[in-house]
Amino acid sequence: MNESARRTTDASASASDADRLRDLRERLEQAQAGERCAQALLEAMASLMGSGDTNEVLAGIAENAARHVGFRSVAIYRADHEAGTLSHVALAVIESEDAHQPLPGMARVRMMDVEPEPIPLGPGHMLAEFALGDEPYRVTSMTDVATGEECPCVLVEMRCGSGDGSRRGALVGVIAACSPEPASARQVNLLRALSALGAAAAEAARVELFRTQLVSAVSHELRTPLAAIRAYNELLLDGDAGPINDEQQLFLQRIETTCLHLDRVVEDMLDLSRLRSGELVIRKGPTDVVAVIEHIFDTLAPEAARRNVTLIEEIDDELPMISSNPDRLAQVLFNLVGNAVKYVGDGGHVVVRAQVRDLDACPPSEPAEGPRAAPPIEGDCLVIEVSDDGPGIAREDMTRIFDEFYRGRLTEGTTKGSGLGLSIAARLTRLLGGAIDATSTPGEGSTFSLAFPIPTESDACR
User: Are residues 143 and 245 located together in one domain of the fold?
Assistant: First the structure.
């Protein structure tokens, strides 16, 4: 091979290497851009799923499908099965200053007004026929509602899960996403994943509405007869219907106790419903913890005496005031101390301690998740502990004791209870700005700890 041919071959090889390097660099940049896009999409959807407004979630899905997945316009239609229609609830459109589609994640998105007229769920309209069909998604061509142009489009069903996987769940709605170019497999898969989130949000909202209505109806239906039963029972106990003997008085007192228990369950259900929906407003102010504890002791002393349980106070002198709500703090302590009295057993002891501790000795203020989650406490804190020498809590139950309606194995069947007290106590503690924690040794007892920040001079000046 002569020198000229060798130089030509070397130049070709160099050009080929440069092309491969350029191609590799482009693919790496695309992969990195895709990773950033996926992360941004995940973070956006995670924040959206905390909303209780289904239409807000669906609008967010439309916006993020346009911004991060790369569709020019995304329209979402929600099914109204009572009216037999599809209602247009969201329309997101990419704003582009030139003819080129902007990169995912870099697009400016505008939410546009939606079509006011619903689409009948029946033959004659592409979206309605697709919604009633058996295709989970369809790649087709249709008129873009944002531009009026015919273009490639992806239709995706939103359906609630059926539970057993044997059939499709109920139709929630349809997503229609359009672009100048046919969608890639990746775009279709991301759109289907977003549709599942939309369906989940709609199902969660439906279940929450049903739960709220059920709690309201049950509470109303229970309260009215309970009030009547207690009124007649008090008349009998007072002897208004004639003299009663000791055995009859005992039976009537048990009726009164049962009515009080049912009334407490009703109140717990209403409180939990308000806590979960964010309807419970707590006004905080300077609170004397010692006065609250003494009130709890006065309230529970008769019950403790009846069960032969000793109540013990261990309260440091000159405890500072905290910013709280005395009524709601009393509710938390009533649940904790009341539970201890109820479960400790005959001859047991319940100790309530209150003291100031430095931050390192305070209960943890940031549990991983759940109703105990609270803002971190800074500086010294006031700690209230409720300890007993009862049966304790099984190790496998510790992660669930603050769950709604959950009752531990070691106390199951021994006493009556709704399983709501600790969940309500945890949620109220968080709203009061505190943290709650529990420790237990089976067979030796349990300790529940509350920690509240102590206001500083700067807090007092606000």
Answer: no
